[in-house]
Amino acid sequence: MRRSHSTSLFGLCGLCCFMVTFPQSGFAQAEWSADDTRRIVDNVSELRLDPDLSHLSPGERTVVANLLQAGQIFQELYEDQNHPDAIWARAAVRPGTDEAILYRLYQGPIGTNGSNQRVPFLSVRPVRPGRNVYPDDIRPPELEAYLAAHPAERGELLDVRAVVRRATEANLLTDLATLEANRWLRVLHPDFATRVAALRDRPSSDAFYAAPYAVAYVGRLLRIRALLREAADAVAAEDRDLAAYLRLRGDDLLTSNYEAGDAAWVSGQFANINAQIGSYETYDDALYGVKAFYSLSLLARDRARSDELAAALTDIQAIENSLPYSRPKTVRSQIPVGVYNVVADFGQARGTNTATILPNDADHARKYGRTILLRYNIMTAPELFEGARSRFCAAVAESHCSELSMAGNFERTLWHEIGHYLGVDRTDDGRALDDALASVSNLYEEMKADLVSLFSADRLHREGHYTDRELREFYAGGILRVLQAGPPRRDQPYQTMQLMQWNWYLDRELLTLENGRLRIHYDRYPDAVESLLREVLAIQASGDPARAEAFIDEWTAWDPAAHGVVADAIRGAAGGGRIWLVRYGALDE
Ligand SMILES: [Zn+2]
Predict the structure, then answer these.
(1) How far is the CA of 117 from the centre of ligand 1 (A)?
(2) Ligand 1 centroid to 268 CA: how many Å?
(3) How far is the CA of 416 from the centre of ligand 1 (A)?
(4) d(CA 411, CA 473)
(5) How many CA atoms, within 13 angstroms, populate the side-chain half-sphere of residue 408?
(6) pLDDT of 518-548, one tens digit each?
């Protein structure tokens, strides 16, 4: 039903704050050690974002102030969704300590240790695949068996904005009390009210039910809604599209249905401020990949660059028509894309993501399109580019080192986002890709976007939009994107699909390994990209999860004598192990 997205700069994923993954060595280490703390804390560098907001009107300043407050609440909600002990663990962390840095970096008490395992670095319960949006003791086979026995409940239990609970008396009494205290919830969520009332007569820890986020997080969501409405009132006279969006999104938080706010967001023509508000991305749900986690991104629009970009975007229908699959669709020629400077990010959106495309809901995207938010002050942060260049240069033959450029990567990222608009969006028999491909749908969607981007580059070059040099820089960014500093875990969709591309490019001899360095044979780029894109589109169109899994198995081999050598070089690169912690001037950091 949904699709996801956010990409990040130069190869590493958007989820991991530029965290370098380390190879498994010997026995897997199952806990957090003092060495892990040093390995992370000693490599942390701060990136401070503080865009100029002096041009904002008084009403827009109120919007900024209120969204920053709302963001802090979303931050707490996000941490709460991720771990049942996060909130009290955060309260116990003393400012200025190593733990405070780790907590800020990981947005919770769980870090990634030297064996690339997610383990607690504070005294809390171990990490659960279902985070804090499924029962704490749930095991996948148990829920799978329940869903198989109760197929009618599948939709509500796997709803994107509902917490799964056991039907224990304690849980039911808590939710009934929430309904009693907030009677309007019965109006907005009548099926939930009916179900909870029915279960109350026969509680059972073997049964499950779904509590809408509006119920599970009602107090904090009401507070956020009030902040959004106050912001809307303040800006209504100057930017009525923004005001309408803020009001509708405030209501969406209580209905758990984002359609109204999404329509107003994607179609609105905003002046100087934009914001991603609410729960969209499902990356944190390691159990089913369906539950959305909270975020807020406050963005200042770069008007000159946004106008320039809109004018430069050519008709993308021609690219859709040329993709290697059998049923091209009609895509809109005017897509809402803008260039922004990040004022502050909260929750799931926090980090060094370079771009965002939302909403994910396939029906909303079909009806209203998807907004593309290019995050310019991250994309062009010199500190980040230097780190990327040093990793690239460590991995490739020396003659390629100068081929990577910031401009090339801007184009690659832009076309990755547009790539989400193109290609297969439903299976041949009409099912949504997320439903059909379940836990691997994100991986295929991201790989498709990467490949559509590289596929488009060749066409744009042939049509004269890029010079030979610009095409090469675009392509060099595509190589950096796929290189890994260690073998990825299967639950890391970005890194896994990047490794698949890496292996495909080796197989097609777009990449060859010479004396421990990669040589890039640019003339083989178009064929290598088109052949892999054809496979990816065919798998998406088939909606066959077994085929999708088998293809992943086939292309995720890791050879220590080949990948390992390159990974060692990347990790050894100057600044290669650097971990970025973002601070925001707007929060007085
Ligand atoms: Zn993407």
Answers:
(1) 24
(2) 22
(3) 6
(4) 9
(5) 25
(6) 999 999 999 999 999 999 999 999 999 999 9
